[in-house]
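Quality-control log, excerpt.
Job 1 of 2 completed; input and output follow.
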Amino acid sequence: MSNVETVRGPVDTASLGNVLMHEHVFVIGTEMQQNYPDYPSAWDEDARVADAVTKLRECKARGIDTIVDPTVIGLGRYIPRIQAVNEQADINIIAATGIYTYNEIPFQFHYNGPGLLFDVAEPMVELFVKDIRDGIAGTAVKAAFLKCAIEVQGLTPGVERVMRAVGQAHVETGKPITVHTNPHTESGLVAQRVLAAEGVDLSKVVIGHSGDSTDLDYLCRVADAGSYLGMDRFGLDLLLPFEQRVDTVVEMARRGYAEKMVLAHDAACFIDWFVADAKEQAVPNWNFNHISDDVIPALRERGVTEEQLTTMLVDNPRRYFS
């Protein structure tokens, strides 16, 4: 038996059920919220928690048992709020540790670290490992995986430092990794190279947002190196239309890569990056129910088997966390 930590405590990986591998409960810029509470979307704590409970209950009612939430520093992680939601919504929520940046690191790390003004061991590694072993911010909730990012800016010094710290924390703890990538710059391959140099087991890495690409050669190269492909932005039709996302999964499954794909939306109950109601108008299918309601039926119609669906939704997440 192998357990994975969730917001409500350890759960046997065999009981995770159907898993959406990249979803956020809340994405919030805390400083903006505290100083400009009505921009770009008004924040009401009780209303947002209640709304999240409703959305997660709807997700669970469609047969989803677990969501993997890679909300870390840079995205507004606040575990007590997630605990309040999870007390009322009967679904597994798996929390992460790491730092989300496309460029610079937080100023708290600018002067502290190897070779810096205060020459000490990498503090990010210590903090990530503490989240995993002791719990996050004084709560009993332990992070079950690590998160970093690389975008069109590429491997900036800040991005590389976070990525290497994530890799080192993985080596120390054995916890898996999810990387936000931009597949159009083939940054998944860059992430694999850097993480491998730190001794990371690439079979324990999800290369996130691979599903934004229809470049099958690139996707095969990432999967052949051992990592999972995050086909995890269903509903973000502005970045790639529904039909192309579905057809890409279908073709990769036909080529034998179902064992290297995981599914999700990268949606959130609330995200404050957009003006109120703009998200719903621009991407109406970007929610936790789109895969259950629309994507799975479309995959079935195009020949993806029940066994392959189970592999992507159940077996691969279980292996990732085992």
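Job 2 of 2 completed; input and output follow.
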Amino acid sequence: MSIATLTSKGQITIPKEIRDELGLVAGSKVMFVTLLSGEVRMVRRTGSIEDLAGLLHDPNRPAMTIEEINEAIAEGGAASGMRGLR
């Protein structure tokens, strides 16, 4: 188990074994995700949204409305236990 100490400026140093495990290097980005349980997870942020373009495209599937997309996103977030991003 790795432990980090919060400084007076709100900063922490991610322990080396965790940096190595996540493949983090100087300049890497991480996200903090709060789950419904109140647990917070640090997740390595990779790539950009543009990298996902066309990933889910299915030419045989009709286009969804904005309302259907929003509903699917809400259901997916509820199912995963995510409360929001910080």
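Post-run check on job 2. Residues 66-80 form the longest helix (15 residues).
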